[in-house]
Please model this.
Amino acid sequence: MVGTAAERTRSTICAVASAPGAGERAVVRASGPLAFEAVRGLCRDADGQPLAPQGRGLHEVQVDDGVGTQPALLVWMPGPGSYTREDVAEWHLVGNPALVRAVLRRLGELGLEPAGPGEFTRRAFENGRLDLTRAEGVLALVEARNSEELRAAGSLLAGGLGGRIAALREVLEHLRALTEASLDFDQQDTGHVPLKEISAALDEARADLLEARTWERRRTPASGLARVVLAGLPNAGKSALFNRLTLEGDEHRAIESDQAGTTRDAKVGRLALPGGQEVLLVDTAGIDPLAEGVDAMAQDRRDLEWERADLLLELVESSGNQAASDNPASGPGIPRLIVMSKADLALSPHDPGGRLRVSSHTGSGLTALLAQIEIRLGLATQDDTPSRSNSGLERQLSERHRKALDQGLQELAQAQALLGEGAGLDLVAEALRGAGLALDRITGQTTPEDLLDRIFSRFCLGK
Ligand SMILES: Nc1nc2c(ncn2[C@@H]2O[C@H](COP(=O)(O)OP(=O)(O)O)[C@@H](O)[C@H]2O)c(=O)[nH]1
Ligand SMILES: [Mg+2]
Model:
């Protein structure tokens, strides 16, 4: 996509909106000011006359592809009541690739341009038909791979997040009006400043923002969470650490035992990081090159988990003879963090290499471990661009949303603190502006162009 938003919006775009290749039906879609002319140029009515559709509707037509005519159904959706808010025409044709090519060629002759990936949805967004979260919902719906992702995408598309942000934005506007009106009063004469009202509205905004964050966290399917995978030799203490860190109840516990080979099936649990975000923690079988039978299957299952890992937590016993370098748990290209386990059994309290030392029995070192995981996954930053390039769509979406929501929460906390300290209301107003900007990035009002480009370029052609 090139040119400014205004230039893009003035052109008329067309693309195949159905799956490529031969099929029962093919759909060609056009959007923009030339769509009406395109319909007149391409479609004949029952009397063989150029079709001039009146109002939204369905027409049985003959399509003139430049060689002959073919029966087709035309769906005419004049703006602004269409998906893009522009005039939109859709031709439902016999699913023949040669016919589709001929129709696209004719549309090109009529002055229409090929649409880029996601360009119809981008126009819908730019023309205010969808906010960015709902556009993301369209994308996520197209890309959903299972029912959990379908549900998650559907709730985004329905405005579950965008609607909450819009409501929050109103509360913030009210707050800003209150503080800015109060700025005009003499700073000493606090009797005129509705501090109680400002404080109550701040509390409300913060509660709403927390609710939005919880909603987004619940919405996020497991595929949208980073995977932290435990690795190490049998008995290194992987299952004990898994049990200590995961949020689930006792029925979800992994069996801990000094019998090597106890863990076979991978266990997946949720882990809460200090910043409030969740990731998946995966317990796997220990490394055993000599494993046979079901134990060998456990090794395969573990290899699979390593491949999907965003971070390997490689456990090495603090007291044992095994050194980290003896340990073959290093899948190529996967970041790993070496952790010395069973710190309570260590002879000296500090590892010479300055490595993390943890004990699942006493709980020592676990806070530092969680902080380190957060940093290594790139989740500790406020920047709302997704941290890992190879992560799936849902991961990128939920990370983007969460980071911006966290930023908004921080700004609100700052506003509350300033108000509590009796700082100047201009500072409070500044923090409120910051919170508003963070929220606007979620819905797309102030999202940088390059981030928008990246989001929309993931769409298929014709969407
Ligand atoms: N003292 C001590 N023992 C531990 C600790 N973590 C695990 N263990 C013990 O080490 C043995 C192996 O632990 P487990 O978690 O099953 O190891 P895995 O094979 O790596 O999953 C069990 O008997 C655990 O009770 C720890 O932090 N301190
Ligand atoms: Mg185990």
